[in-house]
Amino acid sequence: MSSAKKKSGFFTRAAIAVGVAVQFALAPLSPAIAQQQRVPIVRDAEIEALVSDYARPILRAAGLGKSGIDIVLVNDRSFNAFVAGRRIFINTGALLTAETPNEIIGVFAHEAGHLAGGHQERLRAQLERAQTIAIVATLLGIGAAVGGALSDNSALARSGGGIAMGGAEVARRGLLGYQRAEESSADRSALTYLERTGQSARGMLKTFERFASALALTGSRVDPYQLSHPMPRERIAHLQTLASQSAHFNKTDSAALQVRHDLMRAKIAAYTEGPAATSRLFRNNPRSLPALYADAINTHLRGRPRDAIAKIDRLIATQPNYAYFHELRGDMLVRANQPGEAIKAYARAQKLDGSKSPIIQISYGKALLSAGDQKATREAVRQISNALSRDRENPDGYMLLAQAYGRLGSIGEAELASAEMHYYSGSFQEARIFATRAQQKLKRGSPDWVRAQDIINARPNRKK
């Protein structure tokens, strides 16, 4: 993973006045706001390409194929996914825990059900309704309490407090009941999307089984009416019969897709938990391709570049057309202070990468920048600018672009790139300062000057 693997991200759990946590953010948040919410976002070309391949047919089946849905990876160990705006967020913990692609595909099918069903928009209306109920109940309670106090009627005063608390509880339970209904609706939609794409619902049921087992292990007695989701066993009971009737129920993932899934799990385990975790993960097959991939990453992270390069070279010999082995080799060569060889590795990765990831292209530009000469620096500007045209919200890319422009003496462009970097990092005041400085060096009315003005004028929505 790149240095961006622990960026702050953009999701906050909204709550109404009565204190009910909700599943969806109330509004789509820009990454600039996201940076302030301290949710760690993972950027990785290999993982992003794989989860996009998982989600793409599901989104088409849900009628969302042309809706511009983005998938955002969250660096969190818990098994969770959620939607906000036009984005599906999925935790690395879910990707690491899921043993098969089908389990994650089931997760995407469920989240697509929320998006296709317009649940976020309706949830906003339910929140407003719940807030109204809570506010009215509070006002009535205050009125009763004041009336009781003025009339020296202690019973009436006490009842005023009861009205306020009771109204809030009605609002809370009503909202929770609504959320449970929407979760059940998303589950049913997920079955439809899986059927349309010729995929099994077994993975989705396995996820619910996992939740049920985890709940049982806690030994806690749970009131189902206090939850925003149906109980796992209840969800399984509702879905089992329909899922098992599908002609695709016993269909399994292809061997090639399973290998990609295991390579992803190897990478996440190595970067987030280290050698002990990868050893546990592949203890039954320590010489498998994913296990060796994890070993190469662990060696790289332990600061042994020569050994790491030797290990990734052996993997490349077995899979010469796998783009992400070449990408990792480039990372290793950068760390070994061999920019010339790193440039070649990233160029090869970029050529082989079917997803045309801007992340690899930015890494390529970084290696070019490390070469130090003017020709390589100009090429770095070209590569990074091209990547940012497809990944406009990448602060690291703008930071590198600012460095490249600075080396070329293009100070106005460097100041503007710095403004973009601060803007997409959530540092709005700094962004305006750099944008103002950029305007002093750019031609008035030019596209770059206008963009600087946009940053100066921007007043991002800070609603939480």
Automatic annotation (TrEMBL):
SUPFAM superfamilies in alphabetical order: TPR-like
Cofactor requirements of the protein: Zn(2+)
Ranges for domain Peptidase M48: 44-242
Keyword vocabulary terms for this entry: Hydrolase, Metal-binding, Metalloprotease, Protease, Zinc
GO biological process: proteolysis involved in protein catabolic process
Domain of life of the source: Bacteria
GO cellular component: membrane
Molecular function (Gene Ontology), one example: metalloendopeptidase activity
Protein name: M48 family metallopeptidase
Native species: Nitratireductor mangrovi
